[in-house]
Amino acid sequence: MKNVNIRKAISYSINREEMVSAVYGRYTAAYGFVSPAITLDGTSYRKQASETMKEEYEQYAGDADKLKALFQKGLDELGITDKPEDITITLLSQGSATENQLEREYLQQSISQNLGVKVELNTVGDYQMFANERDNKNYDIFVGGWFSDYNDPLDFLNVMKTGV
C-alpha cells in the first residue's frame, strides 16, 4: 500500500453509491475525509472544500480496464512483477452483524472483480482483537469509521497521518 496509484485503484474500485444503498440502505456516499454534516461558518465543509476525490473517482468508476491499468501502474512503479491474479490483499474488519458481513463481502467482491486480485478476509469479533491485528499489521487494508466529537473539519483531518 506504499503506492498512491495502488491505493487509488483499490478505493476507486468500490462503487460508493451502490454500497450505501445495497449494504446499508441509508447514509450518503463518502468522497472525502470530512462528513457533509460538518459545517464551517454555517455552510457544509464539503461544499466549501469541494468533492475533490469525486471528480477523479468518476473517471475510473465502473471501468475495470482503467482500474486494472491504474493498479498495474502502481505495481510497475514499485518494481513488482507479480500478475494481479497472483496478489492477495488482506482486508481486516470486525463485527458479526449482518451489515458487517455484507460490507466485507461487498468490498471483497468489488476489489477482486475490478482489479483481478484475491481479497482475503481477516474478520475478528471485537475491537480489542481488531486493535491487536491492526497494531501487528496483519492486514493490507481495513474497514473502520470515525465519528466527529465536535462540529469542526479538523476533528476528521487531525487523525490523518502519513508514514505510519
From TrEMBL:
Locate the Solute-binding protein family domain: which residues? 1-161
Q: Does the keyword Signal apply?
A: yes
Kindly list the GO molecular function terms attached to this UniProt entry.
peptide transmembrane transporter activity
- Which SUPFAM superfamilies does the UniProt record give? Periplasmic binding protein-like II (SSF53850)
Give its localization.
Answer: Cell envelope
Keyword set, alphabetical order:
Signal, Transport
- Per the record, a Pfam family? SBP_bac_5
Q: Gene3D superfamilies attached here?
A: Dipeptide-binding Protein, Domain 3 (3.10.105.10)
**Cellular component terms (Gene Ontology):** cell envelope
Gene Ontology biological-process entries: peptide transport
InterPro entries for this protein: SBP_5, SBP_5_dom
Q: Which family does it belong to?
A: Belongs to the bacterial solute-binding protein 5 family.
What protein is this chain from? Answer: Extracellular solute-binding protein family 5
Organism of derivation: human gut metagenome
